Prior knowledge:
Layout: E1 10-16, E2 22-28, H1 39-47, E3 54-55, E4 60-61, E5 67-71, H2 77-84, E6 88-93, H3 98-107, E7 115-120, E8 136-140, H4 149-159, E9 165-171, H5 178-192, E10 193-197, E11 212-219
Amino acid sequence: MAADEDDSHYFVREIEKNDSCTLKVKQCYLGDVGCVVWDAAIVLAKYLETKQFYEPSSGVNAWAGRSVVELGAGTGVVGLMAATLGAEVTVTDLEDLQTLLKVNIQENKALVSGSITAKVLKWGEDVSDFLPPPHFILMADCIYYEQSIVPLVECLKLLSGPDTCIICCYEQRTEGVNPQVERQFFQLLQRHFSCEEIPEDKQDPEFSSPDIHILHIRRKV
Length: 221
Ligand SMILES: C[S@@+](CC[C@H](N)C(=O)[O-])C[C@H]1O[C@@H](n2cnc3c(N)ncnc32)[C@H](O)[C@@H]1O
């Protein structure tokens, strides 16, 4: 049996959507940070369902037919949510995460009304496979180690266009090097991009937290 078919490698996290369907996202018992669903990913996934983006009863759907690239997708839960709302999604991460991403796409394909594929994208490397710039770039819990700051900002510069909305969700951590990493990331980012923090009352009422921030980031003109 192939490793990706063997359920003893995985445990399942269930994320209920507002339409009562449930995303079933497999996480690995063993592996690096990308193998589990982080809280920022849940907060961002549920934010995508808020009524400013998605209110079918009023004909609002900011996701239908829109191109979305998720960076550092891990299990893929954020991109999966966008694909179930109608977006054309590419979930990206390092080579090591591709099996998990593909397993989770397969597991949830019945809920997808747009499309979703998994691809390798290492921050700072060539992005020509992902151009023209997508309408949205999504990233959850991607600001966490010093060596990634320059390549991650470079990736955002290469991938975004003047109309791209980057939605970044991160958990503010106070221990160790985390505050310094965050500070350095935002200092570098703000040379090229402007950031708007989304207040808690515009986030999902249940899945939000004072230490988890959502930002809309756009290229400076
Ligand atoms: C903390 S995890 C977050 C995973 C997922 N977004 C979530 O919130 O559940 C960070 C993710 O970034 C990915 N990552 C780290 N460095 C990367 C790089 N240089 N290029 C691409 N992805 C990277 C990791 O593989 C991992 O999946």
